[in-house]
């Protein structure tokens, strides 16, 4: 079963962001376990652009994310594991779950 | 006996069996809905067949075989469903060797306890699922236990089961490293059922004994499944030692009777003895846990001849241990009340005032009631009346409100 791990970082970082080595080690662990499906880390929020198409079909492009949020999506993994407990274990190992950040685990819908 | 009464008593006989059946089926098929459906059908079949054919030599195995056959029928009818479940079943079979060799069915209710009380489910839904799946209550009965409309409870249970299925919450006992944390979530869910029965959050009655007894039943099942877990033993001890006072806690008109005014001859001595034996076991062979300590406090109250001869220094000492193990504003409140009994109302009040800013005590009527009691014992009747008025606005059940009105009347009398 596939789960997406959404890595949320707090907008006001209370502590030091995780060291790059920790992320490299985590990424390697996910790949070595044979559960990696996909994953990316996202560029800074200041580079985000939001697109909406209104009723008349006009494109509305705005700078930044659609709404003010306390947490910012910093990246994601999609992993393939047997059940939620295993997914939660991998979420807990993720450096993004520490230092005021959080990892949201969402099952990928299967059709 | 009319048909509904016969059905109800048969349902009661099958309640425990149903939990075992449901657990084994849920684990096998990984689907609580399917398990519930075929478990009910198997029990219905038993109610028809057994009076005619006689009770089979191994009733549990008969029910399991019947339920599994019905599950296979259902899967044949619904191919898409079957395809999805087939994967689950292969995985479940690999995880748990099949137990079709006859003899006693393995008891897989512990797995179901951990699924129902999974931290990924909402806290209020964990207790509801336990009552539905493990205590065998109907959805309407679960709704009554939590004082919510049946339709609301049905929605909540459906949503929780949907999450178990769709997010694939496993039917599994957690590994040793995770067990203490996960077990405490299970125990918390059982205890929340008990407290809802012991001190109803709303309604006409102070206590609802049937709800408290369901929690004790769940506690007994858990203790049998986890004989070595001292906190499971401690929780059962605590519930028994508190429940033993049930007959003395309300007066003839259902009114609240405080511990200090209770008729001790109405306490259930046999239950106290059982609770004390379990409390000793819970506190032996290792460091104490929060439920074991709370059981010891309840045991000290149960042993005392009256309030004056209660061992208050020992009770305060146990609250100190509890504050170190599981600090909370409610524990601090209870500790302050015990300190007031040991050192006098002024000392207790000073501790209560320290808790004044606690958000968790803001809507908690026992906090204001305790302040009112200590203030009135100090002769500060005006402030006591204000505290009782605040408590009155927060109290959920009519007997509690009646008790607080009497107190308010006492401190507002012309003599003050």
List the main descriptive attributes of the protein structure presented here:
heterodimer, A: 111 residues, alpha+beta, Alpha-Beta Plaits, 21% helix, B: 416 residues, mainly alpha, Serine Threonine Protein Phosphatase 5, Tetratricopeptide repeat, 20 helices
Short description:
The complex is a heterodimer of chains A (111) and B (416). By secondary structure, chain A is an alpha+beta fold. Chain A is built from two helices and six strands, in the order E-H-E-E-E-E-H-E.
Account of the protein in words:
The complex is a heterodimer of chains A (111) and B (416). Chain A has 111 residues and is α+β, with helices and mostly antiparallel strands. Chain A has a single domain, classed as Alpha-Beta Plaits. Chain A is 21% helix and 37% strand. Chain A has 2 helices and 6 strands. In chain A, strands 2-5-1-6 form a 4-stranded antiparallel β-sheet, covered by helices on one side. Chain A has a two-stranded antiparallel sheet with strand order 3-4. In chain A, strand 3 and strand 4 form a beta hairpin. The longest helix of chain A has 13 residues. The two termini of chain A are 12 Å apart. The model of chain A has no long low-confidence stretch (mean pLDDT 89). Chain B has 416 residues and is an all-alpha fold. Among the domains of chain B are: 98 residues, no CATH class; 80 residues, Serine Threonine Protein Phosphatase 5, Tetratricopeptide repeat. In chain B, helix 3 packs across helix 4 and helix 15 runs antiparallel to helix 16. The longest helix of chain B has 27 residues. Chain B starts with a helix and ends with a helix. About 2% of the residues of chain B have low confidence. Chains A and B meet through helix 2 of A and loops of B.
């Amino acid at each position: 079963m596939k789960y997406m791990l959404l890595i949320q970082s707090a907008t006001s970082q209370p502590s030091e962001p995780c060291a790059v080595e920790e992320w490299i080690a985590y990424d390697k662990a996910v790949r070595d376990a044979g559960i990696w499906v996909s994953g990316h880390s996202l560029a800074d929020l200041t580079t985000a652009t939001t697109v909406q198409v209104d009723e008349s079909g006009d494109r509305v492009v705005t700078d930044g994310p659609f709404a003010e949020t306390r947490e910012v999506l910093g990246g994601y993994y999609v992993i393939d594991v047997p059940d939620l407990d295993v997914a939660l274990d991998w979420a807990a190992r993720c450096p993004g779950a520490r230092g005021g950040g959080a990892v949201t685990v969402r099952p990928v819908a299967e059709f | 006996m009319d048909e509904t009464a016969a059905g109800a008593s048969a349902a009661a006989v099958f309640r425990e069996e149903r939990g075992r059946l449901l657990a084994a089926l849920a684990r096998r098929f990984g689907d609580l809905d399917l398990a519930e459906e075929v478990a009910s059908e198997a029990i219905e079949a038993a109610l028809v067949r057994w009076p005619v054919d006689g009770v089979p030599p191994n009733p549990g195995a008969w029910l399991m075989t019947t339920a599994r056959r019905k599950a296979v029928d259902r899967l044949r009818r619904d191919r898409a469903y079957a395809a999805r479940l087939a994967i689950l079943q292969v995985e479940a079979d690999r995880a748990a060797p099949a137990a079709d060799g006859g003899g006693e069915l393995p008891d897989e209710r512990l797995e179901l306890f951990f699924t129902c009380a999974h931290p990924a489910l909402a806290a209020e839904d964990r207790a509801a699922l336990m009552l539905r799946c493990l205590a065998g209550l109907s959805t309407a009965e679960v709704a009554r236990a939590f004082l919510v409309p049946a339709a609301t409870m049905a929605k909540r249970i459906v949503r929780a089961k949907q999450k178990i299925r769709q997010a694939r919450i496993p039917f599994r006992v957690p590994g040793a490293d995770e067990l203490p944390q996960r077990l405490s979530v299970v125990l918390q869910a059982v205890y929340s059922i008990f407290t809802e029965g012991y001190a109803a959050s709303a309604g006409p009655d102070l206590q609802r004994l049937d709800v408290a007894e369901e929690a004790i039943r769940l506690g007994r099942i858990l203790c049998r499944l986890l004989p070595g877990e001292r906190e499971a033993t401690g929780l059962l001890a605590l519930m028994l030692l508190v429940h033993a006072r049930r007959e003395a806690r309300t007066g003839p008109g259902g009114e609240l009777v405080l511990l200090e005014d209770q008729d001790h001859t109405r306490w259930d001595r046999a239950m106290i003895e059982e609770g004390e034996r379990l409390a000793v076991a819970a506190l032996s062979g290792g460091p104490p846990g929060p439920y074991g300590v709370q059981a010891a406090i309840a045991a000290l109250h149960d042993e005392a001849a009256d309030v004056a001869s209660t061992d208050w220094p020992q009770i305060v000492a146990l609250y100190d241990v509890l504050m170190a193990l599981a600090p909370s504003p409610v524990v601090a409140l209870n500790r302050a009340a015990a300190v007031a009994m040991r050192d006098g109302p002024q000392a207790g009040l000073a501790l209560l005032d320290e808790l004044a800013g606690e958000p968790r005590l803001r809507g908690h009527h026992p906090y204001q009631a305790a302040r009112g009691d200590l203030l009135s014992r100090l002769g500060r009747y005006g402030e006591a009346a204000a505290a009782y008025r605040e408590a009155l606005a927060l109290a959920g059940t009519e007997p509690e409100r009646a008790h607080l009105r009497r107190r308010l009347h006492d401190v507002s009398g012309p003599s003050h």
